[in-house]
User: What shape does this take?
Amino acid sequence: MEFSELVKARKSVRAFSKKEVEEEKLSAILEAANAAPSAGNLQAYEIYAVTSQEIKSRLAKAAFGQSSISEAGFVLVFSANEKRSSSKYDSRGKELYSVQDATIACAYAQLAAADQGLGCVWVGAFDEKEAAKAVGAGKDEKVVAILPIGYPGEKPKATPRRRLDDLVHWE
Assistant: This one.
């Protein structure tokens, strides 16, 4: 699929079918996340690939009962590795660059999932400590995104977007 078509086709999917996601599709998504740019090429993030139903359920609970997490074929949890980034960029690396690195990797994974014919939804509403505990994230990590992925069990409609002349400010 052409990139512009992919961007337009991607929708947030919150209901998943029971069809199992093939390992090669998961690998392609992880490869895309690994290809994401990062500050100083440090890749100051960690990805937790969750297939365990028990851990998916714990993540759903940490995300205030968002059932799409426990229903997904698998879940990727992205955490900022603050120590890795701060080793080169001090506090700016810890507070900003590591978060940017993790979120860019998550965005690449999200687009790769759509390219593989899968659905996903970016989850940002969760108890950070409980999510970190569920995946065993290290003390120098900050969980920034949960991405449940699977075969869509729904066909979401396009959501309205802001007009460019309202969004873009030319200087």
